Amino acid sequence: MTSSASGRRIALALAATLATLAGPAISSRAQAADPIKIGAVVSATGPSAFLGDPEARTLKLYVEELNKKGGLIGRPVELVLYDDGGDANKARTFASRLVEDDKVVAMVGGTSTGATMAMIPVFEEAQIPFVSLAGGIEIVDPVRAYVFKTPHTDKTACSKIFEDMKARGITRIGLIAGTDGFGKSMRNQCLKVIGGYGISVLADESYGPTDADMTPQLNKIKNTAGIQAVLNPGFGQGPAIVTRNYAQLGISVPLYQSHGVASKSFIDLAGPAAEGVRLPAPAILVGDKLAADDKQKAIVAAYKASYEKASGQPVSTFGGYGFDGMQMVAQAIEKAKSADPKKIRDALEGTKDYVGVTGIYTLSPTDHLGLGTDSFRMLEIRNGDWTLQAPTR
Predict the structure, then answer these.
(1) CA–CA gap between residue 237 and residue 225 (Å, rounded)
(2) How far apart are CA 17 and CA 58, in angstroms?
(3) Pairing between strand 147-149 and 130-132?
(4) Does 370 reside within a domain?
(5) What is the CA 194 to chain-centroid distance, rounded?
(6) What CATH number is associated with residue 190?
(7) What is the extent of the structural domain holding 239?
């Protein structure tokens, strides 16, 4: 296929996606209708900016595209966006503002697990649907009536990693986890499920969100006899520091990271030390390497082309979480034919076989995520880029 033909195919895929959601163009009279207000709180600045910035850019871009196509149910869409700078207390304050002052009908955001957990009580009490972009399983387990999320859970990531380790004959590992909300949650979930894969933890270390050197912890792991691999549950800058220190110490066993670092920014921060790192991630990072008949290939290519053209930045999984969250909210509004929060919530919960850039979602009253381990791809960093590992058996 020629590059021009490929470009037309991508453009058509994106146009079809947006047209499906937006419906026919609205009249000038409808344009004057009150906007449908959708809220967002992300960490566009601060230590988690490499996660929150692509989320913010995606949400803005997607709402612009929706309005170009006529908005939703004959009304324009207004994105009310706040930046919490990575501060969970600020996130909760903004959540209250979205409910009390801005009168939003739905919320897409929450870059971190900590910020999300701080905001949940606000939206639950107000009975406004909240689609989180954070990874912790406690966001949706137990299920809360008005809370959903788009990223895979940390428990699912643990299972995917352990499936890969088991297939490679790895039975003894070292663990080094961040003490932030995501790191603590994923560590706990990994410890809960690891026994089912016949894998044991011989060394268990941790580091704080502001630590700049993890050499002492990694030295302990290095000097523990019998370790065949190391797993680092974490996100933000911590895993990049772990990866650099890992290489500096000459640790030779494989290093596994979490989906919390599934961004080109991680490779840039870790540098050459990232070579050989393995991690589970959504298809969006390897869209060009997917099979032609892969159900996600067209939507991944369309989002990648649109985002990179608008932002001038490489696509990341985190922007993809925002894309899927906003798209599912938009579909729910169209399905409900209403901007009533309760009806939007009900339509969200009824999402079936939605093909997104993160995975294929099917939600239910008992599952407010709707993704399994099959929606993860195991990747390995080679020559400064993502490579798609063949499925292990």
Answers:
(1) 28
(2) 15
(3) parallel
(4) no
(5) 23
(6) 3.40.50.2300
(7) 154-281+376-388
pTM reported for the whole predicted model: 0.80
Provide the pLDDT for residue 19: 44
Give me the pLDDT at residue 135, please. Answer: 84
How many of the other CB atoms lie within 10 Å of CB of 226?
11
168 and 206 part of one domain: yes
Q: Which residues contact 165 (CB under 8 A, 6 or more apart)?
A: 171, 173, 197, 199, 229, 256
- In this structure, the answer to whether residues 140 and 14 fall within a common structural domain is yes
**How many Å apart are CA 105 and CA 342, to the nearest integer?**
9
The answer to whether residues 36 and 123 belong to one domain is yes
What does residue 197 show for φ and ψ, rounded to 5 degrees? Answer: -110, 5
Q: In this structure, are strands 106-109 and 130-132 parallel, antiparallel, or unpaired? A: parallel
Q: Are residues 27 and 86 in the same domain?
A: yes
Residues 214, 207: contact at Cβ < 8 Å? Answer: yes
Q: Which two tokens stand for residue 391?
A: 């499925």
Instruction: Indicate the residue type of 217.
Output: Q
pLDDT at residue 372 in the model: 87
The domain tally of the chain equals 2
Q: Is the pLDDT of residue 24 over 50?
A: no
How many beta carbons lie within 10 A of that of residue 135, not counting itself? 29
Confirm whether 369 is domain-assigned: no
Whose CA is closest to 372, among 363, 380, 381? 363
CA atoms within 13 A on the CB side of 86: 16
Q: How far is CA 372 from CA 160, 361, 387, in A?
A: 9, 9, 21
**Residue 307 CA neighbour count, 13 Å, CB half:** 26
Q: How far apart are CA 296 and CA 373, in angstroms?
A: 15
The token pair that represents 387 in the structure block: 């490579």
- Give me the mean pLDDT over the 108-119 stretch: 95
Query: Considering only CA atoms, which of 123, 114, 135 is closest in space to residue 95?
Result: 123
226 and 321, same domain (yes or no): no
